[in-house]
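Hi there,

I know you've been waiting on this one. I reran it after we fixed the sequence typo, so this is the corrected version. Both the input and the resulting structure follow.
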Amino acid sequence: MESETLIERLSSIPGAINARQLAEMLHCSEKMLYKQARAGRVPSFRIGSLVRFDPVLVADWLKARSIPGISGGRLVGHYVETATSRKRH
């Protein structure tokens, strides 16, 4: 049985998630996510002072930035990294 992809995992989450939850899934820091959200580079929304992420919108955002033919790639900042290559994205 194949393991669930990050995009599938995000798409199946009901409701909004916080920066800590998304950072764990993307293997990045919360600080980086907050900076990217503030700059409008990662889809997010605010509830008062709280920043939240719609997992379905984040999954769509990742799909739009994926490199065709690379399975198991992961987004790191503006890079998609695999075990054998690193490509600027």
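Quick highlight: The CA atoms of residues 27 and 33 lie 11 Å apart.

Best,
R. S.
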